[in-house]
């Protein structure tokens, strides 16, 4: 689907799609990745028997937003990363100007896809999808979380000293930077499935919890990948003096907490019975993955 | 309206709005500018008696997209400008990371505003606004135009030699980079006003023509105005060896063509009679402004 949405042919209202830009956009989002957000969206919609292309298109839109955020976060002025998914980052494979514009174009195309009648027959659902995606990824969600993250790393403090954040502030930062988009992908699936209010509430909580689990698992991986590697004493977070819950509470405590969060997330799927088996597995995969 | 949309309080689905980001976003869009796109949108909606806050909100969304594009275009990796509207650009007043994120957040918030029920009671209209805004500003519109523009300046040619573009290619580049968003702001006003197909077609052509006039006027100003009058650096096109229609055909020929385009645009407003007096004036202002 991502591949099809990034074709040469221009849509109504577009004039032409410049080849260089299109190629770099494809490089950014077609090079692997877990495709977690589309997966969650499609499986949530499937709970309600919504099996059409709408969920696949909406999932692709979430993947575009996720992909754009990685391209911009990798820029030299941000996290300055040269590698992503084992390949040069977009600004290394192309250049910085291209990377900035690739991000801008992916973000814009995501909203295009959501608002397109091909995604859902109901304009109410389409506008709802746009609104949820925007709230989860904008200044009060993902982008705001990246600002809090740079601030926490000491970007704007004298001598660049990292901030000593409370557990509450770390959780808020992570909920914004990664949790909100994961939760929104579940909610978007529920929206496409015409979930009722109680179902939406249960799935929304499930989404928030697995978003939290995702980040704790990420922080644990950062610590443990480094202990396995004999040459390096610490992972990236510790090297940057970055405040994480794992750093604050320790590995064992967070392993226990992670298991509890997964149990709670799975509980919310109770009303859906066996139909939710894949989402149950997804919660476990997110928490206990090894990459 | 822009001011109100950039308030401290977070909306449903947002977690919090980081102060630093919000301040920089306000710096980016509240520091003057002609507010051309909101003006066109509001006046077009008014043709149909649509006087509510919907057009004002949608106009603010267009201004956010315009503002984000300036913030990103000014970055060192893009056009590398230090001044905008007589003040330091966002990456000079703050830093590059903040400027990248300000742009991302403004773009996202624009789609949020369009999809919000407060903008229009009809979800069809809201989804239509999102779609038009996205098509005009994405890879087949504004962002794509910026890619073509950097390419034309020789960004990706050996020795950085500017491309010798045909008049047709220059016009396409300009239609994408600036024309599409101006035309879309007129179309958005027509959408909010529930314009019929014939009215939409006439206004869409009007929008395309004044978009073209805007760019020719800009190129003429770059040749003729001083930095002081224009509020930004002038003479830049020639210095960069940039291909413009003014460079290709000369000032006199383009002055004549500009007047003809304005006449044609005004013609399209004929069916609206005296109600369109403000849009007639707008076409003249755009073509014959001095900054």
UniProtKB/TrEMBL annotation, chains A, B:
CDD domains: Trans_IPPS_HT
Pfam family, one: polyprenyl_synt
Cofactor: Mg(2+)
GO cellular component: cytoplasm
UniProt xrefs under InterPro entries: Isoprenoid_synthase_dom_sf, Polyprenyl_synt, Polyprenyl_synt_CS, Prenyl_diphosphate_synthase
Family stated for the protein in its record: Belongs to the FPP/GGPP synthase family.
Protein name: Probable farnesyl diphosphate synthase
Lineage: Bacteria, Pseudomonadati, Pseudomonadota, Alphaproteobacteria, Hyphomicrobiales
């Amino acid at each position: 689907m991502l591949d099809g949405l990034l074709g040469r042919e221009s849509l109504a209202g577009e004039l032409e799609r410049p080849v260089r830009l299109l190629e770099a956009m494809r490089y950014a989002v077609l090079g692997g990745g877990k495709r977690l957000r589309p997966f969650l969206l499609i499986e949530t919609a499937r709970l309600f028997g919504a099996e059409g292309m709408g969920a696949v298109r909406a999932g692709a839109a979430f993947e575009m937003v996720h992909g754009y955020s990685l391209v911009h976060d990798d820029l030299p002025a941000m996290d300055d990363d040269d590698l992503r998914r084992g390949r040069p980052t977009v600004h290394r494979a192309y250049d910085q100007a291209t990377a900035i514009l690739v991000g801008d174009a992916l973000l814009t195309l995501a909203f295009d896809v959501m608002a397109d009648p091909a995604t859902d027959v109901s304009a109410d659902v389409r506008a709802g999808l746009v609104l949820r995606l925007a709230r989860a990824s904008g200044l009060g969600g993902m982008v705001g979380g990246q600002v809090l993250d740079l601030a926490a790393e000491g970007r704007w403090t004298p001598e660049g000293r990292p901030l000593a954040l409370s557990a509450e502030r770390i959780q808020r930062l992570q909920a914004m930077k990664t949790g909100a988009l994961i939760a929104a992908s579940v909610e978007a699936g529920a929206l496409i499935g015409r979930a009722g209010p109680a179902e939406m509430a249960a799935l929304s909580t499930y989404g928030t919890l697995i978003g939290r689990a995702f980040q704790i698992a990420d922080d644990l991986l950062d610590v443990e990948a480094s202990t396995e590697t004999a040459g390096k004493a610490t992972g990236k977070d510790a090297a940057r003096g970055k405040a994480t819950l794992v750093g604050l509470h320790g590995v064992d405590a967070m392993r226990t907490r992670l298991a509890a969060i997964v149990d709670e997330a799975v509980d919310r799927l109770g009303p859906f019975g066996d139909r939710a088996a894949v989402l149950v597995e997804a919660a476990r995969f997110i928490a206990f993955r090894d990459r």
